[in-house]
């Protein structure tokens, strides 16, 4: 079976590509390299450098490579920036999804795993977020991901598309020292860049209504996330029953300050983080249950917080 991985040259997508290969599946990568890296694509894996908005390129990727399913990871994923650039966010994430689904329908591809986000829920006032928790996105990014889920559901009714959406928030760590998160907005690379440069890392907001005043999130290891995508793809291939969406949650979550403490502990670099203002679009707390995903996708937290930090730090050090 051949699976197209959109965004397969990015941090998350590249881990998905390797997990597919390890499971005996054949990946094809489509990525415009706006945030990905050609070097992240393994040798021998077909790679089409193009935007998800380029319908002709998407048609070539699907039609010429015998694609039987799609794992859709490509997208603009920065919640804070999306508040400043809503039109760009909707173009990439909504128009991009429409373009992809139209091409899939034309070529008779009826299986899709969507890399969604816990941002669809917004700033919820529940202890644990479940799949049916009301959706109230706090940013255009979260809204665009929710619309993506709606599009999949509608296409399921209209064209028989079999699909599932995987919702998660902060993805960290590395499953391969050659792959690292290079985002200019994500917490781990920001902290590592500061430490390498001899600067003091900072926390965006320490006055949230949480135990230590900093945001609380599910931090999950990227290799665990990749395995969940492959498990979902395999479930679709077998024709097994599948939920329209799964929360890939830790069940407890950790705060940004706890992350900072782990960073100092693992790297051996002592620091007291500076406190900056809150970023727009950042909910105080989102922690999800992963029970449904554990039941159907063998989802579990296979790494401790220190192991997540250590693997990410090793990848960062390898790039120096």
From TrEMBL:
Its cofactor is NAD(+). Pathway: Carbohydrate metabolism; galactose metabolism. It catalyses: UDP-alpha-D-glucose = UDP-alpha-D-galactose. PANTHER family: UDP-ARABINOSE 4-EPIMERASE 1, UDP-GLUCOSE 4-EPIMERASE. It comes from Microcella putealis. The keyword Transferase does not apply. This is UDP-glucose 4-epimerase. One of its GO terms (molecular function) is UDP-glucose 4-epimerase activity. Pfam families: Epimerase. Residues 3-249 form the NAD-dependent epimerase/dehydratase domain. GO terms for biological process: galactose catabolic process via UDP-galactose, Leloir pathway. Keywords: Carbohydrate metabolism, Isomerase, NAD. Belongs to the NAD(P)-dependent epimerase/dehydratase family. Its EC number is 5.1.3.2.
């Amino acid at each position: 079976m051949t699976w197209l991985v959109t965004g397969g040259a990015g941090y998350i997508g590249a881990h998905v590509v390797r997990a597919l290969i390890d499971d005996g599946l054949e990946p094809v990568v489509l990525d415009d390299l706006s945030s990905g890296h050609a070097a992240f694509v393994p040798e021998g894996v077909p790679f089409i450098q193009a935007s998800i908005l380029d319908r002709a390129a998407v048609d070539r990727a699907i039609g010429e490579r015998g694609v039987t399913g799609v794992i859709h990871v490509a997208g603009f994923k920065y919640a804070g920036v999306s508040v400043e650039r809503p039109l760009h966010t909707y173009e990439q994430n909504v128009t991009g999804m429409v373009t992809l689904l139209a091409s899939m329908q034309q070529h008779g591809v009826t299986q899709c795993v969507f890399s969604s986000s816990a941002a669809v829920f917004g700033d919820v006032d529940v202890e644990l977020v479940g799949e049916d928790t009301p959706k109230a996105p706090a940013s255009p990014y979260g809204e665009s991901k929710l619309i993506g889920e709606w599009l999949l559901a509608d296409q399921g009714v209209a064209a028989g598309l079999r699909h599932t959406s995987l919702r998660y928030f902060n993805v960290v760590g590395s499953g391969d020292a050659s792959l690292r998160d290079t985002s200019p907005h994500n917490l781990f690379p920001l902290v590592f860049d500061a430490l390498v440069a001899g600067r003091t890392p900072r926390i965006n907001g320490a006055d949230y209504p949480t135990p230590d005043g900093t945001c609380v999130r599910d931090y999950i290891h990227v290799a665990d996330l990749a395995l969940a995508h492959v498990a979902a793809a395999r479930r679709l291939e077998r024709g097994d029953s599948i939920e329209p969406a799964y929360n890939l949650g830790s069940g407890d979550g950790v705060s940004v300050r706890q992350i900072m403490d782990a960073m100092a502990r693992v790297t051996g670099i002592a620091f007291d983080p500076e406190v900056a203002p809150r970023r727009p679009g950042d909910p105080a707390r989102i922690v999800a249950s992963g029970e449904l995903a554990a039941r159907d996708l063998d989802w579990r937290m296979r790494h401790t917080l220190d192991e997540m930090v250590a693997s990410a730090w090793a990848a960062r050090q390898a790039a120096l």
